[in-house]
Design a protein that fits this description.
The chain is of the alpha/beta class and about 250 residues long. The protein is built from ten helices and eight strands. Helix content is about 40%, strand content about 15%. It is globular, with a radius of gyration of 18 Å.
């Protein structure tokens, strides 16, 4: 209901055109020069070969021949093959995601998705992907928020890549407490058994791209990927608007 009122107010009192990331005045509502430069700089950062998280600036990187793995990925396996993100979860990108997710600024989906598409195109292993699936919300969370931010991103990514999107085959069977503030063990316990696949025939033998807004510990992406793999997906690849850093 709150989102509907915000949309109505935006219609009656339209906002001034502004940069979707920093909020500075922008004649056509496009990203400003400063934010374009910042977003472009993300491409120069080398992600962990597996989970896609970015190293802290100045951190020494350990190479494995084809790339490098973060500490977590050197000691554990994941049900997803790899994950990548549009940039680090910090600064103007973090602020934009908060406005998108918590303040109902759904128009930001197209700009955040553009960063994700750039990351997708930089990683050759996405080329075998055949289906996009957003991380679902529980019915209760969807009712309260009014939209699923992952699904909005998935629709925009799918449109840009010309790839089908299925927002109904993966479901969240029950609501879980917020992940923010929990460590990895608590996050994984929180999500245990939360996801299931409603239509296994849709994802069987597919290479699925799982879309979410943020990758932090990887618990949500891992739980979603595990459910898809159990239901017959050949591979699961993660793609998010932002990701965390590691030391």
């Amino acid at each position: 209901m709150l989102t509907i009122w915000k949309d109505l107010l935006d219609l009656i009192f339209p906002r001034r055109p502004e940069c979707p990331f920093c909020g500075a005045a922008s004649p056509r509502g496009e990203p400003c020069g400063g934010c374009l430069a910042t977003m472009g700089s993300y491409h120069g950062e080398r992600p962990c070969t597996r989970c896609g998280r970015l190293a802290e600036k100045g951190a020494a990187l350990r190479h494995n021949g084809a790339g490098h793995l973060c500490y977590d990925c050197r000691k554990r396996d994941w049900p997803f093959t790899l994950a990548r993100a549009g940039g680090p979860y910090e600064g103007v990108l973090k602020e934009a995601i908060h406005r998108f997710k918590y303040a109902g600024r759904r128009s930001l989906a197209i700009h955040l998705a553009a960063l994700m598409v750039d990351a997708y195109r930089l990683e050759p292993r996405y080329q075998t992907a055949s289906l996009i699936v957003p991380v679902p919300l529980s019915r209760e969370k969807l009712r309260l928020r009014g939209f699923n931010q992952a699904e909005l991103l998935a629709v925009e990514v799918g449109r840009a890549l010309g790839m089908p999107v299925n927002g109904s085959c993966l479901v969240k069977d029950f609501d879980t407490p917020p992940q923010a503030g929990l460590n990895r063990v608590a996050r994984e316990s929180n999500l245990k058994g939360a996801f299931s696949v409603k239509r296994p025939d849709v994802i069987r033998d597919q290479v699925v791209v799982i879309i979410d807004d943020v990758f932090t510990t990887g618990s949500t992406m891992s739980a979603a990927a595990a459910a898809l793999r159990r239901a017959g997906a050949r591979q699961a690849l993660g793609l998010t608007a932002a990701t965390g850093r590691y030391i």
